[in-house]
Description:
The protein is an all-alpha fold. The protein has helices spanning 4-8, 24-34, 39-46, 50-64, 69-78. The protein is built from five helices and no strands.
Amino acid sequence: MQNERELNREGQGDDPLSEAFLSARELEVLALLALGLTSDEIGRKLYIEASTVNTHRRKMIRRAGARNTTHLVFVACQRGWIPL
């Protein structure tokens, strides 16, 4: 079940092509991935374990239909989830 924030964002909670499909924390992780930070670096910056970062990464890759992290960042830029 999706959280209220996702459902309330312009009614796009079900659309895997919308930014609303990702949680706020996933968007934070995604932005840091796009900057080239490692899982350890992201974990330290967000006060979470590197394994949690990797879990977020795997979920985002699956939801975005991406093949890997590089493709995830490319897709995110194309869809406007993160600025170029």
